[in-house]
Amino acid sequence: MRNLSDSITIETGPHLLLSTSIVLGMETPFQEIINTNIVPSEEQCDNIRVFLARPCSILAKLDVEIERIRELLDTTVQKRDELDQFIASHTALLSPMRRIPDDILQLIFLETLPEHRNTALDAREGPLLLASVCHHWRVLAFSTPQLWSRMHLIVPLASTAVNPAIEKLDLKAAFVSELQCWLERGAIVPLNIDTHKYHERILFVHPDEVIAPVIAENATSSYLSALLAVSNRWRNVRFSCHLSLADIEALLKLTANDVPQLEHFELSSFSVPSGGNRDLQLKLLSTPSLRSIAFYGLFADIPRTVQWQNLVELHLQLDHLFDDGPLSFLSQCTSLERLSIVLPSTPTGMHPQSTFEDVVLPSLTALVLCLGPHWQANGITRPNLFDDDTITALLGAMGHIKCLSIPTLALTSDEVVAFLRMVPLLERLRLVEEPTPDDQEYAYEHHRDGRLLRHLILLRGSEVICPLLQHLEWTSINALSDDLLLQFIRSRTLPLVASYPGTAQLASFSAHFNREQLLDVSDQLADAISRGFQLDLTYLLSSGPPRSLKYSPLQGTEHDPEAIWISAQPRERFRPLAPSKYR
């Protein structure tokens, strides 16, 4: 039999509010049957009820006391929170952030903008996000024109509605209105603009497979009219959307005097109906300030008004070539530092070697070559525009190249390795597509060879290919395994690379896979990443059947809500690398 007593004393605050000693004798006359399976008699049941009367009364009092204490605790917590908020509101006045001068805060604002692209007209980033923090920040953001001078524009369709419940909402008009607000807030600051036409994107459809026909519109697009009104502020302008005939005519009217600050101009492919005006010389490109051009279209439409000797960067993606002096203007580009050329096939009578025979580019440091069919599905044969001898001649004369992008789709792994041996000073490399297996003729729809990296893995007693390689980027991978990729990176990073004197440590690797992820490579390389190694791998999500994607001003950015990729959606997923990537 147990003889226990509980003494409960309750105090709150500095003063004794309750001092009650409850002594409960724990002796029980039912010790022999308690906590057993014995069935008590009727008499024992009556005795148990009588015995529990006092404990039940005490329990009820304790429940009441607990509720009182809880209410007291809630009241105390509420008072504490109110006092804490009162103190915090005053402490905030002492925050160093409040004493940062406006000019310094404006510089901080500028550092919040996207690093590698322009700012989308969306409330979730850029100046619109800053302006939502507080009144002071809003006023300061609105008075900082540099925040509003970099725009990533997704031009919506006129019939697109934000919400089906809102009938006939003119999203295009709202977009133009927002664009005009940004242009006004940007004051006289030079503009960096890239425009993309919104399309109801369908997964796995390549946007550049077919040149979209020119839209027959009688009036210049309202968004382009707004941009033309401030053409004197253009600095870096990119039209990645297909323009209407009226839009093209409006651009043709611009002269060099209209764009005195223009440094970079990019125009995507367009087509003109047969019999239409082919005099598409963009007079605005004769401005002496121009330093960079990217052109996607027909050879006949290449702007001829450019002061080629001023260019430091040139990117050409041509859909058709003609016999009349192909690329003869290259010999005038004596200041060129970065060159990218994408050619589809050999025109009649053209000899590849003679095309570059008299071209001397003494300042060239980055070369991008895409010299064969691009994104065609049927009837493809091995391209002959730039055969092995031509590439050998090019690279042999440019052994000082430190940055190189080269298509591997029409080459075998051994051929790619042979070309890489010709550029021993290479520091940055971009591989476009994957090589063709040795036993297979070139055809896009065939399997790819995923073994190329085996030749670049560091092995004792073997030749080190590209010993100075620090940055490697690879696009559109299908066959390369995650295991082989892991072996390559480990061999080129610490601690293994330290065993190969004269071999640089790989600093970054990025790749876009057209398949699902099979191995968490980043987890396996946690140590290398902690030491500064940069890894950017993008894998295709399992997305099911094709589906339409909604309009978003963030389309094409890493924050695209409809992206079909794990991690950031690749910039320029389907377009060859522009040489500016290798600055």
Write a structural description.
This is F-box domain-containing protein. InterPro entries: LRR_dom_sf (IPR032675). With 583 residues, the chain is an alpha/beta fold. The protein has a domain at 1-94. It is built from 13 helices and 15 strands. Strands 1-2-3-4-5-6-7-8-9-10-11-12-13-14-15 form a 15-stranded mixed beta sheet, with helices on one face. The radius of gyration is 35 Å and the shape is extended. It starts with 41 loop residues before the first helix and ends in a 17-residue tail after the last strand. Mean pLDDT is 78; it is low at 1-24, 159-169, 200-215, 373-388, 441-445 and 566-583.
Helix content: 10-25%
Q: What do the pLDDT scores average to?
A: 78
| Cα distance spanning the termini | 89 Å
Strand order of the largest sheet: 1-2-3-4-5-6-7-8-9-10-11-12-13-14-15
Rg over C-alpha atoms, rounded to the nearest angstrom: 35 Å
Q: What count of helical segments does DSSP give?
A: 13
**Which structural class best describes the helix and strand composition?**
alpha/beta
Question: Would you count the extended β strands for me?
Answer: 15
What pattern of helices and strands is seen along the backbone?
HHEHHEHEHEHEEEEHEHEHEEHEHHEE
Q: Can you tell me the overall shape?
A: extended
Largest beta-sheet characterization: 15 strands, mixed
Query: Low-confidence parts lasting 5 or more residues at pLDDT below 50?
Result: 1-24, 159-169, 200-215, 373-388, 441-445, 566-583
Q: What kind of oligomer do you see?
A: single chain
Determine the strand fraction and express it as a percent band.
5-15%
